[in-house]
Write a structure and sequence with these properties.
The chain is an alpha/beta fold and 194 residues long. The chain has six helices and five strands; from the N terminus they run E-H-E-H-E-H-H-E-H-E-H.
Length: 194
Amino acid sequence: MTRRFLFVLGSARPDGNSELLARRAVEQLPPDVEQRWIDLTAHPLPEFEDLRHDSDHVRPTEGATALLLDATLAATDLVIVSPLYWYSVSAQAKRYLDHWSGWLRTPGVDFKATMKGRTLWGVTALAHEEPEVADPLVGTLNNSAAYLGMRFGGVLLGNGSKPGDVLKDTQALARAKTFFTQDAPLARFPYEAG
């Protein structure tokens, strides 16, 4: 199966450190690997409305919701590119993940079965020297992948606060060279480890 990457950009700043790091990692992919980049600021999703117990779900056919649903379903590799905002993903990225709940109940989509076996990745920049502060972000992505039976490639972490700072993080740039080539194991909830 040809790999098709979807990069979901969740920063409030264009060309932010997380995106710069993701673009460095992409440079290492073979040229035949498809990639699509969608900026959630340019394509804002509406507030998520929880309609789990309603029966009138319909597949979106226009706007950002339809664009992101179709792009998500088409991807073999899904990359959440979000800076660390208050120790987790950005509000834009979280809203995107919230919409997954609605897509689980959208007729004709079979979202959970479609996503099963695909790979979720994360790329984030943080302004903290200790990477452990990103554990909530990593947990959010890992657990989302585990719920859907996806693989989880982990999170590529880089350090940077001011625009372009991450390009000075030589360790992150070195990790970026092999990040998307590693084997991504099946995601597991923390209580399943062992």
